[in-house]
Amino acid sequence: MTPEPLHRRIYADLEGRILSGELSPGARIPFEHELTAQYGCSRATVSKALSELAGRGLVTRRRRAGSFVAQPKAHAAFLAIPDLRAEVMERGQAYGYRLLDQMERDPDGGAEIELAAGGPLLALTCLHSADAIPLALEHRLIALAAAPQAIKVNFQITPPGTWLLDYEPWTEAENRIGSMEADAVTARLLQIKPGAACLSVERRTWRDGQGVTRVRQLFPGDRYDLVALFSSAHAKDLSR
Question: How many domains does the chain divide into?
């Protein structure tokens, strides 16, 4: 039996303390250096566990301030925002990522103007893969008014979704899940036939009413499915 990765044990320990009420809403999570000493691991391992807690909506991460237990939202059930890099690695596969295009531009149209909130947008096109097989084609817009540090990030190395989950916490999110046929460009990048069915996941996030990002991810229909498990307290989004 494969031992559970250490970051998952840290995640489970903190999750248990949060859900039991031992760590109440607004309470500070131990600092990363404290957790590395407690578990005898690297800071990257701790950061991965905290990122997953943030992705599940249990923790908010504030740059230079630390991590805190999220405030509960009454009557809220939600799909957590997945980190594709973490998901692929958790399945024991080799994660691959390629930035295809990046540009700063003005908003084009009403929805983009609303997202931009008076500032420019950072437009990114990325390709994610698992074991060298294309998994998702991503088209993303980041509002620089909400996330100004994004312009300084090297997205050649860091996937934008991973960076946003780590450094730009969200308070509201909207998911739209559908299907579409792959056009010629999408088919070439995902290594599928033109017209093949793709799962389309469109997502928008806000922080205290201000738009942060809008993204559309296209997955080959035979390589990805999305399962949402809901409970009265919180929901987890599991992808495989």
Answer: 2
